[in-house]
Each structure stands twice: as C-alpha cells, then as structure tokens.
C-alpha cells in the first residue's frame, strides 16, 4: 500500500513536463565503465551516473550547481536514477557523491520553501519524503563519498546511506543545522540521526544546529571514515567491495530489519507529516526567518 503511494508520487513526477525525457541521457562511455564493455554514462541534466557493470557498482554524481540544493526537479531526477539502477540486475551498489566542487549538498532548496503556495509545499514535501524513503530502504548498498559541505538535507541524504566516507577538509562540515535557520528538523530527520549517533548526541546536535568538522563528525559517528580528499572515491570503492562480498539476500533482509520500523513511522504518518510541514512553513515567522537566511547567504558575497 505504502509502496503504491510512493509509486504514484514518482509516476506523477515523471509525467511533469520537466521530467519528460529524463529517463536516459546517453553520454560518453564512463571512465568507470568496467574495462570498455560499452556501457555508457547515463542520467539526466542534474544527475550523472557512471556505471561499472563489472563491479556491479554505479557512481551517482549530483550536479545541480552551484550548491546541489535539493530542488523538486533535482529530487525527481535522483529518484529516477535510483529506480533505474534498482531495476537493473547488473547493479548491487551505488556510490553517491557530488560533481560540485567543495559541496556535497546544501540541503533542501530554500527557494522551494519560501514565498510559494501551500499546494507547492505539499508537492515539494512529498518529493522530500519519497527521496528519504527510497534511499533509506534501497536494496542496493549505498555509500556516500562526501566530498564537500553537507548541511541539513544534505546531511540527511548521506544518513540514508549504509556508510559515509568524508573528505578531510575543515570546510566540509556536516550536520542537521535546521535550528540555525529558525526551523525544526522533522521527526524522521531526527530519527535517522538518532539511529546513527544515538539519542543524547542527537539531542545536543539538533538543538544547537551543530555542523561538525571532519574529526568531530567521525568522533560522534555522523560519518564512518575520514580520509584525505584525494582518497574519498577510492576508499568508497574499497568499502563497497567489502559490503558486496556479503550474500545479498542476507544483507538486504538485515538492512530492512534495522530500518523498517523507522520508515514505517513516516509511512503511517505521511499525510499528517505533510500537513504539519505546510502549516509550519506557511507561518509568517518561519517565512521571515527563511527569507532573512537566504538574504544573508546572498549578502555574504557582496
Ligand atoms: C514542528 C516541525 C514540523 C515540520 C518541519 C518544518 C520545517 C522543516 C523543514 C525542512 C528542514 C530543512 C532542511 C534543509 O535542508 S534547509 C537548508 C539548509 N541549508 C543550509 O543551511 C545551507 C545554506 N547554504 C550555505 O551555507 C552555503 O551556500 C554553502 C556552504 C552550502 C556554500 O557556500 P558558497 O559560499 O560556496 O556558496 P553561496 O554563495 O553561499 O551560495 C551560492 C548560491 O546558492 C544559494 N544557496 C545556497 N544554499 C541554498 C539552499 N539550501 N537552497 C537554495 N539556494 C541556496 C545561495 O543563496 C547563492 O545564491 P545566489 O546568491 O543567487 O548565487
């Protein structure tokens, strides 16, 4: 039932004008294309997929410049790529990384949550929910190669992965910093963090809106490994090999066992969660905070 609802959201998204023609954008043969067996890079304008069929792995590169903010279009393209890889028996694992230098993802797109109509907020929030559910419950091994800063929704996306490798650069902070924007991390953001670093550490991190630099992120457990920047991709590949050596069915069932209770909470409260989000985001005080935050980002330049 829940899956059917998810499929409807995805199907509706695919029917949108900007989503048409996104299914395959054939490109050059990928550098990771498994010794020239002819499998090409594919993807969409904002998501580049580099397949390595020999290894059963695809590198999914987010490229929504300037900051990989998770706009509605971008989320839809990510979902389409994920679905395509999940439906292709060649692939058992994905490495999720960024094509935008120094930025993994700036999180949810603030312009999707500012000055729009309630119907837009509903549509946007459904896509955010769907992305979390799909990545969190994916049967594939998903490893995040975090090669840039990763606040809020960017951090959440990495937390849906099975393993996180972070580049050792003090600028590459990671965390759920929503309170700094005057907003609140929804319960399923919070649950995902609790499942990763525990209750007390989450309580502190979320209330203070902490963005952890690499050493701190490793210490608290937000990431699993910190490596020199030029070793992020190779480390993600080695870790992937280790995970893929485990019998797939046993690993998948264990993942489901661990994650389903958390996902079920959102699945049963999905509509209520949308209403809560829309009510919250429509508040004058919240809109003011978000506008002020966006303005601050813009003024930073000048
Ligand atoms: C009771 C509770 C019930 C319900 C819950 C309700 C609400 C909660 C809902 C949602 C949770 C929210 C989750 C989020 O993810 S919110 C987004 C959080 N993200 C951030 O705080 C990051 C903001 N960005 C930055 O800090 C920097 O941009 C960054 C460090 C990523 C990069 O810095 P850099 O100097 O390289 O670039 P900038 O010049 O700052 O930015 C370039 C350009 O991009 C625009 N920008 C940046 N981030 C975003 C974004 N998240 N969304 C949209 N646009 C963004 C920025 O304004 C610049 O634009 P322009 O000036 O036009 O070039």
Automatic annotation (TrEMBL):
Main EC class the enzyme belongs to: isomerase
Key words of the record: Acetylation, Fatty acid metabolism, Isomerase, Lipid metabolism, Mitochondrion, Transit peptide
Superkingdom as given in the UniProt entry: Eukaryota
Enzyme Commission identifier(s): 5.3.3.8
Chief location category: mitochondrion
Gene3D superfamilies named in the record: 2-enoyl-CoA Hydratase, Chain A, domain 1, 6.10.250.170
Function: Key enzyme of fatty acid beta-oxidation. Able to isomerize both 3-cis (3Z) and 3-trans (3E) double bonds into the 2-trans (2E) form in a range of enoyl-CoA species, with a preference for (3Z)-enoyl-CoAs over (3E)-enoyl-CoAs. The catalytic efficiency of this enzyme is not affected by the fatty acyl chain length.
Name this protein carries in UniProt: Enoyl-CoA delta isomerase 1, mitochondrial
Origin organism lineage: Eukaryota, Metazoa, Chordata, Craniata, Vertebrata
């Amino acid at each position: 039932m829940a899956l059917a609802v998810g499929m409807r959201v995805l199907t509706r998204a695919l029917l949108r004008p900007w989503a048409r023609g996104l299914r395959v954008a054939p490109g050059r043969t990928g550098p990771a294309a498994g010794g020239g067996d002819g499998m090409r890079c594919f993807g969409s304008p904002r998501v580049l997929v580099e397949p390595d069929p020999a290894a059963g792995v695809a590198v999914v590169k987010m490229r929504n410049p300037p900051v990989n903010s998770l706009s509605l279009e971008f989320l839809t393209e990510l979902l389409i790529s994920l679905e395509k890889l999940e439906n292709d028996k060649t692939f058992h694992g994905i490495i999720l990384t960024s094509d935008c230098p120094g930025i993994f993802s700036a999180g949810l797109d603030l312009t999707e949550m500012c000055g729009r109509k309630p119907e837009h907020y509903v549509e946007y929030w459904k896509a955010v929910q769907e992305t979390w559910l799909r990545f969190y419950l994916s049967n594939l091994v998903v490893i995040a190669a975090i090669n840039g800063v990763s606040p809020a929704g960017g951090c959440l996306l990495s937390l849906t992965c099975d393993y996180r490798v972070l580049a050792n650069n003090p600028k590459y902070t990671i965390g759920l910093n929503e309170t700094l924007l005057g907003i609140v991390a929804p319960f399923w953001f919070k649950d995902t963090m609790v499942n990763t670093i525990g209750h007390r550490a989450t309580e502190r991190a979320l209330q203070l809106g902490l963005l952890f630099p690499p050493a701190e992120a490793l210490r608290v457990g937000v990431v699993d490994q910190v490596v020199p920047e030029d070793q992020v991709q190779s480390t993600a590949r080695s870790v992937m090999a280790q995970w893929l050596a485990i019998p797939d069915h046993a690993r998948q069932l264990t993942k489901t066992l661990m994650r389903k209770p958390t996902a079920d909470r959102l699945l049963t409260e999905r509509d209520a969660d949308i209403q809560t989000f829309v009510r919250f985001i429509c508040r004058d005080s919240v809109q003011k905070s978000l506008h002020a935050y966006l303005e601050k980002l813009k003024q930073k330049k000048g």
